Amino acid sequence: MELIRQVNKASIASGGQLLAEGNLVAFPTETVYGLGANAKDGRAVAKIFAAKNRPIFNPLIIHLSDQGEAYKHAVLNSSAKALADAFWPGPLTLVLPRHPRCEISSLASAGLDTVALRVPASAAARQLITAARKPIAAPSANLSGRLSPTRAQHVANQLKKQVSLILDGGSCDIGLESTVVDVSTNIPVILRPGGLTSEAIAQVIGRKLLHNTGSNTEIKSPGMLVNHYAPSLALRINAQKPRPGEVFLGFGKDAVNADLNLSPTGDLLEAAANLFAYLHRLDSMPAKGIAVMPIPTETIGWAINDRLERAACR
Ligand code: TXA
Ligand code: MG
Question: 80, 175, 247, 259: which could form a disulfide with 76 (CB 3.0–4.6 Å)?
Fold first, then answer.
């Protein structure tokens, strides 16, 4: 059977069955492509860590077909409920206390007493989860530390030997991972900036959000490793122009001699959607490095800069 299959009724049904039988299936979401496994099956979850070469202290996000499922696995306080009501399905992950009868594999949450849940907006993703009849653990479908995938082909380039099926739903609308918010305590904290802005979240909970960017980030969200999302080429950020041998990733109307422009009109949402795909393209060019123009830090620009800073750190 073909490794990459277009999203349709038949491919979703096969994907659901493969997942239920303990295999890995890559699938599109509105943020990035996920590498899915049945979250209740410890052996299947272990395959994710092996395939990605992911450190086992880095917990996974559990994907659900609808909000009602969340109450089986976790305890939601009033902030958690308000955020779920406002933003699910969508690019928001909630870190919550595990329900006493939670059946999610403890490996999936790296032995923590919390569990990270998300209901993706992508219809294909939710149909797949429904077909599997299981909660689906899914990190981004890339090798650990490398660029995230926003196209089916990106997944195939890194993980074709490790997955049973890649569902192709075209390019991801948002292009950046979900925003991870810890609501397991009284004061919500953003652990990872992402597709949903902190302004939108603050509006719903009626207060400014704390950002966990300090030294305790590693403990709270072990996945926020400083060096992450990295292309193979060296990456230099906040560059006004390229140095000899560098390819140049621009932003906005001033980027006249850029090799690629994240958004010629300076639209941050467009830039987010293009970010990983353009880095994949530049990374395959015969160059010494990638230079990236400054990107404004407002709204989703904060998450774009977060990814670029980690990609540049080596
Ligand atoms: O958009 C997304 O979130 C994508 C798609 C596939 O849904 N998934 C994704 O997964 O980005 P991953 O594994 O690349 O990132 C998961 C993040 C990590 O930073 C991890 O540390 C954090 O979520 N996380 C997961 N469970 C956690 C927990 N119990 N406590 C704190 N952080 C947690
Ligand atoms: Mg990732």
Answer: 80
